[in-house]
Amino acid sequence: MTEPLISRRIGIFLALLFVVTVAVPLGNLVIAPGSTGHVPSHIVALLGKYLCYALLAVSLDLVWGFAGILSLGHGAFFALGGYAMGMHLMREIGDRGVYANPLLPDFMVFLGYSELPWFWYGFDMFWFAALMVMFVPGVLAFVFGWFAFRSRVTGVYLSIITQAMTYALLLAFFRNEMGLGGNNGLTDFRDVLGFDLTADSTRSALFVLSGLALGAGILVGRILTTSKLGKVLVAVRDAESRTRFLGYRVEHYKLFVFVVSAMMAGIAGALYVPQVGIINPGEFSPANSIEIVIWVALGGRGTLVGAALGALLVAAGKSYLTAAFPEIWLFVLGAVFILVTIFLPKGVLGLIESRRAQKRDTLVPDAKSAEAKA
Amino acid sequence: MRESQLYLNDVNRSFDGFKAINGLSLVIAKGELRAVVGPNGAGKTTMLDIITGKTRPDSGEVVWNKDTDLTKLDEADCARLGIGRKFQKPTVFETLSVRDNLMLSLSGDREVRASLFHRPSRDEADRIDGLLDIIGLTDDGLRLAGDLSHGQKQWLEIGMLLAQEPELLLVDEPAAGMTDAETMRTAELLRSIAGERSVLVIEHDMEFVRALNCKVTVLHRGSVLAEGSLDHVSANPEVIEVYLGR
Ligand SMILES: Nc1ncnc2c1ncn2[C@@H]1O[C@H](COP(=O)(O)OP(=O)(O)OP(=O)(O)O)[C@@H](O)[C@H]1O
Ligand SMILES: [Mg+2]
């Protein structure tokens, strides 16, 4: 009677994800260029980027789809994870930069820094950076959530302040004084853990890691949402004050899921940066965070895999449209959001599943009554 | 004299200058069943808001079990002390199943960690089955609460209240939307709970109040107008005036 961890929908998605995660690197590394089935390197990087978006969408679905917290600032957690990874990649360049300074990244030499700012210490170690990828977004989410949830800021007001949060970070990261590369951000990365970032094998490895991270993200989300905690979150979404009168500290539950979600978004950002080769303040732009909401709405809220699917669909559509008709992309995105909100409240996943249910009902008209008898 | 479960003394609360609760004093004894009646806007629901930590009084004492000051506590604290509440408008978790609604309400550890590591148990399932039986929803356990009829939601919320095993049950207009037969069953249920637990019921339906067969408090303009048996208060000229004068 309790929901299984691997439902049909989750199982299908994970199986497909597994196939893609294995097939794409094989198609790139094993099948020679020119023969059928070869996957060009730039496609590997592009698909890897999509997987990171999908993980980001799952993280938003966790808070929005289940707990009803509509965060319009999730791009900030993604970007912070990305910056943490970017800082490590910058340090790893070492003295191979243009200015050949063993300690200071190029942009610091250019801006006349004489020493490394304190918050860059430790990022030369991969393990430290990997921790910061989760820790920094997690701490921000904790501090922000602690104030917001305790003061019972909900609904539109919460959405607005999350948007303000990412906007404030956007402005801050644009400043050179932040010591994070200002408007250019961090780029010109060479390698990670000694592996050349431009090598096909490294790209494939990053792709596989992104696939695994997405699978793990969905599983973690599924474990949380099928637990009693997940039901408390849905209860909060349905009737917040009722949940309080049952004795649940709603703010603690929200804070927990918000922090977990932010850390997941941070991991997505960290995997994204080495695959695209740059992180700049543009990732904090409010529009990015709104786009994540569109992915989740399109795929289907509260389903985890729907969110991932929505991200993949929009990302693919965006790659196609921005190349083919760059000027209409934003209009298409806006139209998709409006149409989905009006006609597909359960998203694409809801549409697919209701189609299938209909088909089953027409094929086996008395399957239900047979079930009932059994 | 029995020990007091809940003690309100000279409680005041106004909203934008309007005195919703005005010098209200009330004592509920342990195990007592009490009906509170009063015209619309008398302050009945606001009184429950004050007892359950949702609304802070401007002044006055609200004391639980003779020693705990409820005015400093929030909703979750009050619930954890053992105060359960059923809302005037039935409020259930619409997208959860009936069983899950009850499961979340069962008394137990409410902390995040406990919920995360919670494992469903045989004992828990049995408790839920028992509750489903009491509220007449045995065949509806797997339905979504949002799909229930208004009356069934009322029952589910009563079930959720029972599941909490509170010391004091605050029940705001439970009979709204119920058939006559169901109304009588509700009265019977509440009577059977009293004694072991304290129950405060707000109700408009006089048949229902009569069936409860308990002490009645008439609230008017935020304070107690009369108190006593139903026959006693309904003979009170001021009460008649308030009810007929509307
Ligand atoms: N949060 C609030 N803000 C402003 N006014 C309020 C608030 N809560 C209650 N009131 C006012 O206090 C008065 C008492 O309301 P209350 O809901 O307690 O009445 P009631 O006795 O429960 O009535 P009913 O029988 O209609 O449920 C009403 O006039 C209401 O408008
Ligand atoms: Mg009321």
Radius of gyration of chain B, whole Å: 18 Å
Biggest sheet strand line-up of chain B? 6-7-8-3-9-10
The amount of beta strand of chain A, in percent, is under 5%
> What is the distance, rounded to the nearest whole angstrom, between the alpha carbons of the first and last residues of chain B?
37 Å
The assigned CATH architecture of chain B is 3-Layer(aba) Sandwich
Question: Which chains make the largest contact?
Answer: A-B, 26 and 32 residues
What does this structure look like?
The complex is a heterodimer of chains A (374) and B (246). Chain A has 374 residues and is mostly helical. Chain A has one domain. Chain A has helices at 8-29, 41-66, 74-93, 106-110, 126-150, 155-174, 200-226, 228-238, 240-245, 250-276, 286-299, 305-324, 329-343, 347-363, 367-373; strands spanning 186-187, 191-192, 195-196, 278-279. A two-stranded antiparallel ribbon of chain A has the order 1-4. In chain A, strands 2-3 form a two-stranded antiparallel ribbon. In chain A, strand 2 (191-192) and strand 3 form a beta hairpin. Chain A is globular. Chain A starts with 7 loop residues before the first helix and ends with a helix. Chain B is of the alpha/beta class and 246 residues long. Chain B has ten helices and ten strands. Chain B is globular. The mean pLDDT of chain B is 93. Chains A and B meet through helix 8, helix 9 and helix 10 of A and helix 2, helix 3 and helix 4 of B. The complex binds adenosine-5'-triphosphate and magnesium ion. Magnesium ion (MG) binds at residues 44-45, 88, 172 of chain B. The site of adenosine-5'-triphosphate has 11 residues of chain B, from helix 1.
